[in-house]
Amino acid sequence: MIISLVTPSLNRASWIGAALQSVVEQKDDAIEILIIDGGSTDGTHDLVRQRFPQATLIIQPDRNLYEALNRGIERARGDVVGFLNTDDRLLPGALAAVRAGFARRTDSASVCGGCLLQTWDGPTTVQEQVLNHPAPKALRAGDIISGHILLNGRFFHRPVLEALSGFDDTYPTYADRDLLGRYHLAGYQTTVLDEVIYAYGCHAASLTFSGRASPTLLAEATLMARTRLHDSPSGAARRFYRRWHGWAAGYESARLAVTGEISKAWKTGRAALATDPLWPVFFAQHLGWHVGTRHERHT
Asked: Where does the record locate the signal sequence feature (predicted)?
């Protein structure tokens, strides 16, 4: 089984070396490393060519992170695909655990291990948090809507990503949750790994974990949920997206109100009513779930 690792990059020379070294240290001969670079000008290309000649470097401008990931999926030849950010690392034994997970359950569409969140202040790690509760790794509807989705701790059979048409890069910061929502609705099964296999680097320049949700991200979440809801006239998909839309609209409205933007909060809530008059009910229901599972996001 070949594992393809897709790493999107743009001017990340100061980070990418450690990420790729963590792959080399897996001592796994059946891997493919794909660097999807948007046109770096900071020496990234020379670094990759000189230190990691086994990696395939693909240089082509892209619209956003998720177009780059889709390009990597299209170019991958592995049976399994995983995603490695330039400022993150695979932990020792990660790929061995992935292989064991797929061998244990050959019908699984993906496997998911735990993740380590390392908060950095410059070169110093100032805080570490382990996310390794089994329930979020198994991927429930609520986790996709408001939990830690641990995308980089997930390794997918490549045909599954192809069947889902990859990431919808219409949503430049929310496409990962959107993909996992479609994965969930398709009924795919995930094998949960006991091991912690991936380390996220959390810092000011991080694209994954850089603090609380921004107004742009919240508005994008509401737009995505509203669009998917309109496209889901009935059944499980409609119930799922009503819940997601209610949470997204309510959370965005609440954040606007807390920051003193009462008029915007009111408009957001009223616009959501036009999509689903019962969105406050779905918001309240999911809020109860979110609070009740809080301990799972802090283990």
From this structure: none
